[in-house]
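Ticket #4471: structure output looks truncated?

Reporter: J.K.
Steps to reproduce: submitted the chain below (564 residues) through the standard prediction queue, then opened the result file.
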Amino acid sequence: MRIRDTGDLWWKNAVVYCLDVETYMDWDDDGVGDLPGLVQRIDHLAELGVTCLWLMPFYPTADKDDGYDITDYYGVDPRLGDAGDLVELIRTAKDRGIRVIADLVVNHTSDKHPWFRSARRSKDSPYRDWYVWREDPPPDTKDEVVFPDKEDGIWTYDEQAGAWYRHRFYRHQPDLNTANPKVRDAVVKMVGYWAELGLSGFRVDAVPFFLADVADDPDDEVEHPHEFLQDLRAFLSRRVGDSILMGEVNLPYDEQRLFFGDHDHDGDHEGEELNLQFDFVLMQQMYLALARQDAGPVAATLAARPPIPRDAQWATFVRNHDELTLDKLTDDERAEVFAAFGPDEDHQLYGRGLRRRLPPMLDGDPRRVRMVYSLLFALPGTPVLFYGEEIGMGENLAAEGRLAVRTPMQWTAGKNGGFSAAAPSRLSGPVVEGAYGPAHVNVSDQRRDPASLLSFVQLLARRYRECPELGWTERAEILDQPHASVLAHRSTWQDASTVLLHNLGPESVTVPLHLPDTDERCRLVDLLQDDEHHPDARGRLDVELDGYGYRWLRVVHPDSRRLL
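Returned output as attached by the reporter:
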């Protein structure tokens, strides 16, 4: 086993942490989180075991979509700090062994962006063709909108321009025309700029949308949309050799796999596009499995994962910064998850997802919460945490839409959860109240409690990093056993192998296992507690598993030199 490989392809066993600077830590007490505040909390991330920090948009913004409506791709929102503060964050994070990546939002701009302001003024504007226009009335496109509660179509008439412009998201976010080579050049230049300031890559927002227009022009040198993604990765890799593109591609597996790389467009991948993709399919099947207390959907989905390039990776997650989308489930399956975890209409969003965090969905049951996070780190892939998950934060349903889960970070039991000393009315968002408020859920209390969720997630991150097979295995081996509620799988890479057991049900069970490559000389050492198991001469053993229990069992052969 060449452990040095895990340093070259660092993203295959990284621990990624996503946060919004605006809601993380306010250091100047103006009510808005800022980059200096994040720097002051970088040691929290280091102690947690984070190796890659993903920043949600920090650019200047019209702030109608929590920063995703960008007005300047080369700046820093002055409420958050300046470019110097960002460089200090990157430098300090690097000292703690943490790489920093940022959101790349190039499907659209704000309608306040200078490009669009120029484009709408005249057909002769040099930026007119940087956006997508039509002069004839559009057909009904209500089925194409991303936010059906806010928009009834993807075209809006602009009086000043005398034409309709396309916006697949909100009307204040006009779509960039990536079929225009000048737009693609601008994207590349912007990526190069931030790479020079020290970013290690980007989380690419809405990848299928921003590639949709590429190569629309038959006279263009780009013949296939994916060529632009390939060129973008090649450029970034030349600038920063170990950089990454982590893409948001919420599609079925057969379509999603192409975004890892399909150079000759024959349906087979060769790599060289996205380094990582979020596994939305597995995430949604996990919630279905939790609702049914049946591990079958997770096992079937792991078995159905398509092969991916050696350098590529799946990014696994319990929830992200958007609604917890369930759009890949059937209507009946989605209804099951809604009934279990979001029965009130106020819990749901767009008819397809939930605006809740995990602990309230599980009624605060610490056994189930810990089992789910154990499962997250145990699944083949790279785990991605959304800020506050490590302490079990809840949502604030009084906030609008997706903002219910984007509340200020809870550092202490004090005023505003220690996020800011400003008046509550000046905060960037409302603090969570009730049982999940700062008085009961905060970093300060949990970091002193070895039995806290924070301590448990720290342990998971450390063990995950010590087990490269969890990220590097080509495919999970689903182990035969008789209990529907139990997911039993094995991850192996070269000479490292771990058996992982998770009970999604409330009843204790005995799990019989057969590991043909082991015998009575071997040990199965539990990495999460002080325990070990011994197979018999035929490689058989029984493992007791509590209700909502979990086990990480490292297979140790007599000649193993691995530290435990």
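Triage note (M.O.): checked the attachment and the full token line is present. The chain has 17 helices and 22 strands.
Status: closed, working as intended.
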